[in-house]
Amino acid sequence: MANQYETVFIMTPVLSEEQMKETVQKFEKILTDQGAEIVHQENWGLRKLEYPIQKKSSGFYHLFEFKADGNVVAELELQFRRDERIMRFLTVTMDKYAIAYAEKRRNNRKEKAAQADQQPVVEEVVNEESNPVEA
Fold this sequence. Notes:
- The protein has helices at 17-33, 70-82, 96-118; strands at 3-11, 37-53, 56-68, 86-93.
- The chain is of the alpha+beta class.
- The protein has a single domain (3-103), classed as 2-Layer Sandwich (Alpha-Beta Plaits).
- The protein has a four-stranded antiparallel sheet, with helices on one face.
- Strand 2 (37-53) and strand 3 form a beta hairpin.
């Protein structure tokens, strides 16, 4: 039976945007080739680290949420260790409460994004009568 996992990994900040995307695609491909189903992924972008890692004070964060067997996680973590672009990673097994919370969080973000798109733009109309110009 496949469990649901959540993996967050930090890539070195010296990567270009293209190199960062290639790295994410590499690990996405590892998961899908091993038979994992990617439920959700988020790019958290460049963030400041709490403490320096490898003399770096920031890193690119990325999250994968996926369903897979335990041997897939072992292979993924092995590839994380081998890749010099990865500074840290953490994989956790999600229980039913964590899965429900993650779904709720995703739905809230979708609703907020939809509301932001639907907000009407209010333009100030200057009334000429209220500010007459005398000649």
